[in-house]
Every structure is written in C-alpha cells, then in structure tokens.
Amino acid sequence: MALTSHVKLGVNIDHIATLRQARQESEPDPVAAARVCKTAGADMIVCHLRKDRRHIQDADLAALCALKGETHLELCDDPEMVAVALKAKPSSVCLVPETAREVTTRGGLDLLSDQKDPRLENAIKKLKKAGIEVSLFVDPDPVSVRRAKALGADTVELCTTAYAVTREKNKQLAELETLALAGYLAHELGLSLHAGHALDYHNARGVARLPHMACLNIGFSIVARSVFVGLKAAVAEMKQTIS
Ligand code: PXP
Q: Which of 46, 52, 59, 189 meets the CB 3.0–4.6 Å disulfide criterion with 10?
C-alpha cells in the first residue's frame, strides 16, 4: 500500500490577481479563484499583500478573509502593513522579508544576528495579541529556527527555494536533508512546520514527505498549470502530488 501524507495544501492566489492587474480589469477575480481552489481540495487560501500592491489589493484581502475557512496572509513587518492585517483579520500571517522591485520573495527573514529587531518583534506582538497565528518565513538553518521560537512564532515556514531550484540530484538531496533537519528542530521546539516557495509538480512531494511537515504553500506553479488544465484540475493535481 502506498504511504500517503496528510500535509495541507495552501494555495497562493497572488498570480490570479497579477493577471487581473495587467489590464486593470475586474477579472480574473481572486475571490472566485479561492472558491474554486477550495472545491478542488485547497486547505488554505494564501495571498501576499505587497507594499506596492502589484497583485492582491486591500479589497481582495478583506473579501478573502470574509470567506469561510483559513486565509493565510504573507506580509512584511512594516507597521502600516501590519495595521492592514489587523483590520482584515486573516487566520494567520506569515511575516516575510520584502524589498522593492524584487520579482518574488528572495529567502527567509534575516534572523541570524542576535541584534534586536523592534519592527519584527512589534509585528509579532500585535498580531498575536489580535489572535492571529504568526508564522515566520525562515531559511532552513538552526539559528533562524531557534530565533523564530524565541521571538514567539507559532509556526516556521521553511524556505524551499534552494532545494527547488537545483537540478543536480545530489545537491537536491542535500538541500532536502537540510530542510529535514530544520524541520526536526522546529518540531522539537514545539513549532508548527510549513514550507514553501518555488515548489512545483516535480519537487513538492519530497518536501511533503519530510517528518512533521504540516502544510505546503504553493502558488506560481499551480496558477501556471491552470492556464492549460484549469484551476480546479491544477489544484487537484497538486493535492494528489503531495498526498
Ligand atoms: N511562501 C512564501 C513565504 C512566499 O512568499 C511565497 C510567494 O508569495 C510562497 C510560499 C509561494 O511561492 P510560489 O509562488 O513560488 O509557489
């Protein structure tokens, strides 16, 4: 009998909004997309409200948070952005680094130094006080995972880019091992374990199989595939891939 995992799938719908914003139209509507994702097996809807509002808009976020089920927001720790999150009340927030004009998130938060980071600490405090679960997007290294715990995070989302972008088998296995070790540590520390970024239909299964993995957050590859097979099928295929 094949082993199956119970890893949740968070579907990031940013690029549905990217398409809409390309023409400043009302379609495709990310909220309608979220409904389709849910019927296809998505456990959570994920979106990233960027400071430049290049895809998801504040009104999208409000409408997504009003839907039944979990809405997970990716956000930088800018106080103005945190204020938007506090108003919208998503189920959870993943704090991510964000720089202007980056094409996509470029890695985990810089948690390697012992220096206090009042902005990050305030963001975590305010979100938690509002009853919003806090995840920190971190590179899969022990220092970052330990610091996430010390900062009061509920969850760490391990950045999978290094694993996902390599085409070399040995390097990929080494990156997977790095993710596994960071995952063990997160679990030992009582953190819930998520992973994501740059995962696709070929590489997601390996991460889904890691011990203690609770949820994978995947966006671009699903939306890209949906152009050819439709969103419902693209989500269902990914759900199948990681199960
Ligand atoms: N996780 C985090 C923290 C992200 O910032 C992103 C991109 O918004 C994702 C997951 C999804 O990445 P991708 O679109 O490459 O699947």
A: 46
Q: Is 199 in the pocket of ligand 1 (CB under 6 A)?
A: yes
Architecture of domain 8-99+109-242: Alpha-Beta Barrel (3.20)
Please write the tens of the pLDDT for every residue from 98-134. 988 888 888 999 998 878 899 999 999 999 999 999 9
pTM above 0.90, yes or no: yes
Ligand 1 and 137: CB distance under 6 A: yes
pLDDT of residue 1: 46
Q: Does 78 have pLDDT greater than 70?
A: yes
Catalytic member of 15, 55, 194, 197? 197
pLDDT in tens, 206-235: 999 999 999 999 999 999 999 999 999 999
Distance, in Å, from the CA atom of 24 to the CA atom of 6, rounded to the nearest integer, reads 38
How large is the angle between the packed helices 30-39 and 58-66, nearest 10 degrees?
30
48 catalytic residue (yes or no) = yes
SS3 track for 186-230: HHHCCCEEEEECCCCCCCHHHHHCCCCCCEEEECHHHHHHHHHHC
Catalytic site residue 187? no
**Catalytic site includes residue 74:** yes
pLDDT digits over 166-194, tens only?
999 999 999 999 999 999 999 999 999 99
Give 170 Cα–ligand 1 centroid separation in angstroms.
24
> What is the per-residue pLDDT for 4?
64
Tokens linked to 120: 């990050």
Which is the catalytic residue, given 15, 55, 74, 157?
74
